[in-house]
Amino acid sequence: MGKLCARGANRSRVIIFLKKITLMPQHSGRLLALAGLFTLAAFPALAHSEAGMTGGLISGFLHPLTGADHVAAMVAVGIWGAFLGAPAIWLLPIVFPLVMTIGGALGVMGVPLPGVEIGIAGSAIILGLAVLLAARPPLWIAAAVVGVFAIFHGHAHGTELPEAADPIAYAVGFVVATGLLHLAGIAIGLLVRWPVGVKAVRATGGVIAVAGVAFLLGIV
């Protein structure tokens, strides 16, 4: 009974959170930037709140960083965005976390999603190949590819929400960690400004794709 009540409360919080996300105006870079600043500013308050919220924030932040498959895909998103240049350099790293929260909400609410592990491994393969092959599709296609994979990554995070943790704090944690991984990828991707950097960046994409195959086969 206690677990059911907790899950019901989590669903209510998640639904409210999703409504707030869907009300955000599209193509508003300024509002998204402010949202990022508010997220970072919220850390001190969250750190001094109840144990469930603090545990959720920490668990959410650490979860993406402890999964090699997630790290590889997130870095690849940043690299590909930097490789494509503006506006993809900021759009792809924004699309992914936003869509990922929807996948996370589905996971928290217990909505089944088939092929999650395959989708996560596939994201490393496809995104790694996109970097290796210097793929330059239309921006909407790149954003759609990133968004589809974000659902799988988010769902995996959501299903592993600790029972006592606050789901919103958990979501903030894994979104912030994901954003930092994107930034790391962007830093690598900016090496394309130099001829030798282009080769290094594309080679990194190849390594990520190979790692994705290893994830898919269960070798790693």
List the helices and strands and how they pair.
Layout: H1 2-22, H2 29-41, H3 43-47, H4 51-65, H5 68-84, H6 88-108, H7 116-132, H8 139-159, H9 167-189, H10 195-217
Tell me what the structure shows.
The chain has 220 residues and is mostly helical. It has one domain (2-19, 52-217). The protein has ten helices and no strands. Helix 5 runs antiparallel to helix 6, helix 5 (68-84) packs antiparallel against helix 10 and helix 7 (116-132) runs antiparallel to helix 10 (195-217). It is globular. It starts with a helix and ends with a helix.
Mean pLDDT figure: 79
Dominant shape: globular
Largest sheet features: none
Strand content bin:
under 5%
Rg calculated over all Cα atoms: 17 Å
Euclidean distance between termini CA atoms: 38 Å
Which residue ranges are poorly predicted, with pLDDT under 50 across at least 5 consecutive positions?
20-51
- Count the beta strands: 0
The helix tally amounts to 10
Measured as a percent range, the helix fraction is over 70%
Q: What structural class should be given to the helix and strand makeup?
A: mainly alpha
